[in-house]
């Protein structure tokens, strides 16, 4: 049976582990490295798919957990699948629901983020763990995870088998094995327990995927590497997942801000070179460069769209805040020589007005710009690899964006 997902390396980064390639899917070829636009509920907030295409988007990711709750994965299936349902006809991914194990579990009860600083982690190790202020909406068992809907309080059980069946109904080109995304403050013993459970869930996800020949022809399954910030666990997980008959790999979990690079150095050399690698939930510009340098092919993150709705704008000279007073009378574009629709037609002053007036158009225009920024950045990163100047481009971008030389 032919694999629906194929990956070809075109050029490697000299002196590093990264590469530029092509990722072929049933709905088109993706040029990598690439940024995956997050459309959680089969929509990128405030944008049409035509607007996505015009800003340069080539692939979207939808959320298994959220589409299962609303409108229901069977409705998406009956509409013709995700592509027909949302009028998107390029490549698409769905996550497994594993991140909600974290976001509705320990993150929800203790108000934690996916990323913490190493100093915060050391404080947690010394016993200064944030108090649990709410009951969790996710309870982990060997069979799967019992979720309490954040919407209406109803109870739902998500198992590896159920996750794959939901993703089959949604119909994305790339799907992920069900996993447990742990908290960065979890102990070594719990990280090990969760990692081993993730491996068992990966086996069950794969068995379910392989039991449905019609979907195997349309969807590629990625296994997910876990293990927290512990080198031995990450290597153990990478070795286990690498030996599964999957189309590619996701690198998951939560991190301290400082150890993501270490995790990639531990994991990626152990994963088969000729299969694609996706870094789940990562989107800070410098993290993209670090990820690419160490062998990541695709990334997804809500940051560009979420920040846009809060008036935060990404530019090559750093991020700006439209609520700053100076933009009220700034009649220049958000970014000179940007080329996006927003910068070609509107000024900072108009954008600042829209946000202060709480006009929905502001969300749309800011989102167009931010997504164009990320898509263009990844296009330029890919070009720098093909032209053998990646490290120089990384340094020049960082010195301008962060105002320092890394």
What does the model show?
The structure is a single chain. By secondary structure, the chain is an alpha/beta fold. It folds into 2 domains: 6-301, TIM Barrel; 309-401, no CATH class. Helix content is 42%, strand content 18%. The protein contains 18 helices and 18 strands. The strands form 5 sheets. It has an 8-stranded parallel beta sheet. Strands 1-2-3 form a 3-stranded antiparallel beta sheet. A hairpin with a 6-residue loop joins strand 1 (6-12) and strand 2. Helix 8 packs across helix 9 (188-210), helix 9 packs parallel to helix 11 and helix 16 packs across helix 17. It starts with 5 loop residues before the first strand and ends in a 5-residue tail after the last helix.
How would you briefly describe this protein structure?
The chain is an alpha/beta fold. 42% of the residues lie in helices and 18% in strands.
Secondary structure elements and pairings:
Layout: E1 6-12, E2 19-25, E3 28-32, E4 34-38, H1 49-55, E5 60-62, H2 64-69, H3 73-78, H4 82-86, E6 92-94, H5 98-103, H6 106-110, E7 115-116, H7 118-125, E8 138-140, E9 145-148, E10 155-158, H8 160-170, E11 174-176, H9 188-210, H10 213-216, E12 220-225, H11 231-242, E13 248-251, E14 255-256, H12 260-267, E15 277-279, H13 285-293, E16 298-301, H14 303-309, E17 312-315, E18 318-321, H15 341-345, H16 348-356, H17 360-386, H18 390-401
Parallel strand pairs: 4-5, 4-16, 5-6, 7-14, 11-12, 12-13, 13-15, 15-16
Antiparallel strand pairs: 1-2, 2-3, 8-9, 9-10, 17-18
Helix pairs in contact: 8-9, 9-11, 11-12, 13-17, 14-17, 16-17, 17-18
């Amino acid at each position: 049976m032919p694999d629906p997902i194929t990956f070809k390396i075109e050029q490697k980064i000299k002196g590093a582990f990264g590469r530029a390639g092509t990722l072929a899917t049933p709905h088109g070829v993706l040029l990598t490295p690439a940024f995956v636009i997050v459309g959680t509920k089969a929509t990128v907030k405030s944008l049409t798919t035509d607007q996505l295409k015009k800003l340069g988007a080539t692939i979207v990711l939808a959320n298994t957990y959220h589409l299962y709750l609303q409108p229901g994965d069977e409705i998406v299936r009956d509409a013709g699948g995700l592509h027909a349902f949302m009028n998107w006809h390029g490549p698409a991914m769905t996550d497994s629901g594993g991140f909600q194990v974290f976001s509705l579990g320990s993150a929800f009860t203790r108000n934690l983020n996916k990323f913490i600083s190493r100093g915060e982690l050391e404080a947690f190790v010394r016993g200064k763990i944030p108090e649990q202020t709410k009951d969790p909406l996710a309870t982990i068992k060997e069979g799967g995870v019992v979720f309490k809907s954040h919407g209406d309080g109803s109870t739902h059980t998500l198992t590896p088998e159920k996750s794959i069946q939901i993703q089959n109904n949604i119909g994305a080109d790339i799907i992920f094995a069900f996993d447990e995304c742990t908290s960065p403050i979890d102990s070594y013993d719990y990280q090990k327990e969760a990692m081993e459970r993730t491996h068992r869930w990966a086996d069950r996800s794969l068995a379910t995927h392989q039991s449905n020949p019609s979907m195997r022809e349309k969807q590629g399954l990625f296994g997910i590497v876990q293990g927290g910030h512990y080198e031995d666990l990450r290597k153990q997980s990478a070795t286990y997942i690498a030996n599964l008959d999957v189309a590619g790999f996701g690198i998951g979990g939560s991190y301290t801000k400082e150890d993501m690079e270490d995790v990639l150095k531990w994991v990626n050399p152990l994963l088969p070179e000729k299969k694609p690698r996706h870094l789940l939930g990562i989107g800070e510009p410098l993290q993209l460069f670090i990820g690419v340098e160490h062998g990541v092919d695709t990334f997804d993150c809500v940051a560009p769209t979420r920040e846009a709705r809060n008036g935060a704008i990404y530019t090559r000279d750093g991020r700006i805040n439209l609520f700053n007073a100076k933009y009220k009378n700034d009649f220049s574009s958000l970014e000179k020589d940007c080329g996006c629709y927003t910068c070609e037609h509107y000024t900072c002053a108009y954008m600042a007005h829209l946000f202060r007036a709480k006009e929905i158009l502001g969300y749309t225009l800011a989102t167009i710009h931010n997504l164009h920024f990320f898509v263009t950045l990844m296009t330029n990163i890919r070009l720098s690899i093909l032209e053998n100047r990646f490290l120089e481009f990384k340094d020049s971008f960082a010195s301008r964006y962060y105002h320092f030389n890394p």
